[in-house]
Amino acid sequence: MPEYTWKSELKPDIFGVLLVQPERMAGWDLLQYINHLAENRQQTERYEIAFWGKLFYPWAVLVMMALALPFAYLHVRAGGVSFKIFAGVMLGVAFYGMNKLFAHIGLLNTWPPLVVSALPSLVVLSLAFGALYWIERR
């Protein structure tokens, strides 16, 4: 036979996944690739963490807003407004860094992807509510 057609389940878009970082993939594509890897008994943790991170991203925005609330109750006339703004920005950057760091640590320690994605937001949300309670009690 000079030519033979090889029928396969692999499509060209599956190979395109190797060129793109999981954090930059669409959620639906991540889910399909996770299913493909699971069917072939390959590791899916990195892609699952990216998938759950995409699902919890709107939650992280709400957590950042809750983190900003204690700074809104501080009196402007008391002074130090620039320090308060700087502290708020640094808390936001620290939260973002903690999310990324926790994702990498969870990948290394093979923690459940759902926990890796949700735990930093829950910890910071509890700290934000604690700070809000402390401001209200003052």
Keywords:
138 residues, mainly alpha, elongated
Structural write-up:
The protein contains 5 helices and no strands. With 138 residues, the chain is mainly α. It is elongated and about 85 Å long. It starts with 11 loop residues before the first helix and ends with a helix.
What is the number of strand segments?
A: 0
Low-pLDDT residue intervals, each spanning 5 or more residues: none
Provide the helix percentage.
over 70%
Radius of gyration: 22 Å
Care to give the gist of this entry?
Helices cover 72% and strands 0% of the residues.
List the helices and strands and how they pair.
Layout: H1 12-16, H2 27-39, H3 45-72, H4 81-108, H5 113-137
Helix pairs in contact: 2-3, 3-4, 3-5, 4-5
